[in-house]
């Protein structure tokens, strides 16, 4: 096969054009290499387009009462070309200065959980009053872990001033 084409298997089959966001630079190759910033997950077939991590979730809103904090958000504007989107929520307790943040630790509970979320919402329980909480919400897909780019997330800071 000439440059820009590949043949996944040896034999009497026609050469195929490289999938989107991939290329070959040498003749007679069995797989096309992904462009910079694009990736193919280990289980993705060679015929699949190369994809990229998603952008950050959008439009975070919250609703809080005495016992529960509900966080909801919109999916990212760019899914990276994949359908295997999940979300993670990281909780940080912050002082008056945003540089004085620390991970919340075991006291906070997330329903259903804080990682591997399929839906774009989570409920937070067992938070403490009179604390500044920052929640970082990250969208991920099957190639997020392959990228060296900084994680894309949306953050919201909430002060719990109820007793």
Automatic annotation (TrEMBL):
Entry GO terms, CC: dendrite; plasma membrane
Biological processes per GO annotation: axon guidance
Entry keyword annotation includes Membrane: yes
InterPro entries: Ephrin_rcpt_TKs, FN3_dom, FN3_sf, Ig-like_fold
Membrane topology field: Single-pass type I membrane protein
Cell location: Membrane
Keyword tRNA processing included in the entry's annotation: no
Location (main, coarse): membrane
Name under which the protein is recorded: Ephrin type-A receptor 6
Organism (species): Podarcis lilfordi (Lilford's wall lizard)
């Amino acid at each position: 096969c000439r440059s820009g084409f590949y043949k996944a298997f040896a034999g009497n089959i026609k050469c195929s054009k490289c999938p989107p966001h991939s290329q070959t630079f040498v003749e007679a190759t069995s797989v096309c290499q992904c462009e910079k910033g694009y990736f193919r997950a280990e289980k993705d077939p060679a015929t699949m387009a190369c994809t990229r991590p998603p952008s950050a979730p959008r439009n975070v809103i919250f609703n809080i009462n005495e016992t529960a904090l509900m966080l909801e958000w919109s999916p990212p504007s760019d899914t990276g070309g994949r359908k295997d989107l999940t979300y993670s929520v990281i909780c940080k307790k912050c002082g008056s200065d945003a540089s004085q943040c620390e991970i919340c630790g075991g006291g906070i509970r997330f329903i259903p959980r804080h990682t591997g979320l399929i839906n774009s919402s989570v409920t937070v329980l067992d938070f403490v009053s009179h604390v500044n909480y920052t929640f970082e919400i990250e969208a991920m897909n099957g190639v997020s872990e392959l990228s060296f780019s900084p994680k894309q997330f949306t953050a919201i800071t909430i002060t719990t001033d109820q007793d």
